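Appendix B, Record 12. Input sequence as logged:
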Amino acid sequence: MKFRDLTPGTLARIPLVYRLPDSPTVPAAVEILAPPAPCRNVLCPAWDVMARVIETGEERPYHRRPEFEVVLITPQAEEV
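Logged structural output:
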């Protein structure tokens, strides 16, 4: 899935653009709160989206290019 395809309510993992040595290997699971929109800086090719980190409840912006790959999290199926 691409960053531009995120929609409110979607659960995803948005990787770091550049992985730092002390960063976690698996990005945090987030819930998308608002649809991605182009950066307010007209010279910037990236888009912004607001998301809530599932584990902490912290709301934070993510700033990525629209073609950036993100990992969609699908809800686990319930047993019948």
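The radius of gyration is 13 Å.
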